[in-house]
Amino acid sequence: MKTMIGLDIGGTKISGCVVDQGGTTLARGRKDTPAHDPVAIVETAATLIRELSFEREIAAVGVASTAFIDHTGSTVLFAPNLSWRDLPLKQLLESALHLPVTLENDANAAAWGEFRFGAAAGTADMVFVTVGTGIGGGVVTNRVLLHGAFGIAAELGHLRVVPGGLRCGCGNRGCWEQYASGTALVREARELVISETPHAARLSELCAGDPAELTGPDVTRAAAEGDPAALELMSDLGT
Q1: C-alpha–C-alpha distance, residues 13 and 21, integer Å
Q2: Which sign, positive or negative, has the C-alpha torsion 220, 221, 226, 229?
């Protein structure tokens, strides 16, 4: 039975799985990402693919990453957490593996997965939004995944929602993900702790008074406990 391998290359880990044509996962694997060494990332990804391929007939490989991918689906234009700039990742992996490789932005890949096998199965049009450290997105219109002229049409997190607003990692100001993401949540919570307002007493307790140690899970824990400050932060982010 021919199977495929899907790989997700992130800033901290590289996750892989073997799937059949119906989308069923047959095996999984994971390796840490050597994020500051572009060449080592490619080598680690290729090694994981080889391990997952052992004694299996693999037809193709799909690689998703938190990155801007060019419109041809061959080059990583920019990956802020991986030190990749204008990297011909498709060619490098195909040369190393002797398998056809499809390269895609991770949010686009997730959107296509939901369109094919998940919540949007049976529809013709959908918008998919990922909310985590930042905000990602994928758009399917008339059953076609939207890429745009430069390959990055669905980067929803980098829509400017506050002109002249906070500086974003992409270089622009006022991007959506600066106001409605895990990063935004932690930034606002730390500012509350720094202010030494009694309103932030529980948040301060969770980080032992050191704002730099406060994390997203800490804020979530406080909100689950009913802490007014954490609930207010969650409400602001959601709005």
Answers
A1: 25
A2: negative
Rounded Cα gap, residues 136 and 107, in angstroms:
6
DSSP 199: G
Selection from 218, 210, 169, 184 nearest residue 11 by Cα: 169
| Residue position matching structure tokens 């994390």 | 215
Give 5's strand partners.
18, 61
Question: How far, in Å, CA of 84 to CA of 77, rounded?
Answer: 7
pTM metric for this prediction: 0.81
Cα 1 to Cα 20, 62, 98, 117: the distances in Å are: 8, 18, 19, 20
Could you list the pLDDT tens digit for every one of the 239 residues in the chain? 789 999 999 888 999 999 998 889 999 999 999 988 889 999 999 999 999 999 899 999 999 998 899 999 999 998 877 888 999 999 999 999 999 999 999 999 999 999 999 999 999 999 999 988 889 999 999 999 999 999 889 989 999 999 999 999 888 999 999 999 999 999 999 999 999 999 999 999 999 999 999 999 999 999 999 999 999 999 999 98
Summary count for the chain: helices (H), strands (E): 7, 11
141 torsion bin: left (phi>0), alpha (psi -120 to 50), beta (else): beta
